[in-house]
Amino acid sequence: MKPSSSPSPSSPSLTHRELVTQPESWRRAARAAKLTTGLPSPGERVAVTGCGTSWFMAQAYAALREAAGQGETDAFAASGFPRGRAYDRVVAITRSGTTTEVLRLLSETASTPTLAITADPRTPVMDAATDTAVLDWADEESVVQTRFATTALAFLRAGLSPSAEAAIVTAADEVEGALATPLPPSLLAAEQWTFLGQEWTYGLAQEAALKMREAAGAWTEAYPAMEYRHGPVAIAGPGRVVWSFGPLPEGLAAQVAATGATLVAEPGRDPMADLVRAQRLAVAVAESRGLNPDAPRHLTRSVVLSG
Length: 307
Prior knowledge:
Blueprint: H1 14-19, H2 22-33, E1 46-50, H3 53-67, E2 73-77, E3 89-94, H4 100-108, E4 114-118, H5 125-128, E5 131-134, H6 147-158, H7 162-179, H8 185-189, E6 192-197, H9 201-216, E7 220-224, E8 240-245, H10 252-259, E9 262-265, H11 271-288
Parallel strand pairs: 1-2, 1-3, 3-4, 4-5, 6-7, 6-8, 8-9
Helix pairs in contact: 2-6, 2-7, 3-6, 3-9, 7-11, 9-11
């Protein structure tokens, strides 16, 4: 059952109405992780996969799992999965349950235990995976993913340990505060946005940039924070934004300030909560440009290929 929400006076879009429901979706995901079979066990060699937004969530989870000392964990786009590499388990994230590349991959890894995380129990992925986790309360009508993607990551993150589960609950509380805080006008008026992350938050940085492209057709980029000085900083300047998920490397804040760019860095906030702020920004920028974030150009809710 999907969570209900009342329309925000600041945005009439469906995308906005869905993204503001994330706190409760994350809390529910944290509870569900304790009751799910098929989650990776400590020590297993795991591959996590998906397409688009789901791939970026896979990257974040892979880094979190390795950092937690639970075993080697790789993340691949489903179309680029190394078929000859052996894993103890494959985790696939697919909101629609119909994405062609994911279904093909699961059919080709039938000898390996697989877990599919999806929003729709009436789709082919239910028969393609060994185990499934249905997060139907986080399903969306929007083309642009917000709630399902972060809920899938919350689910996987909470499954790592009791402390990780507690972190999700804390992050949900932080989102509620972030949703009540207006976005700074300088972020809305910018002409370009660059998102940075380190380790697991690099996946979040890539997802933030994707949201800006999808919803607003904006010029956005994403980089590992330590790589930013190796070239990309050249485009920083007045009227442009550099947004860091988590702490910045030493000295980078001063370097960004010297360019005249606007720096967004709140290391005390959970990076997942900060991602919700970036989602809000994407919707707000789209609407400020006269675009409809519910109808992004050239996109469909699921990519289903013929043949």
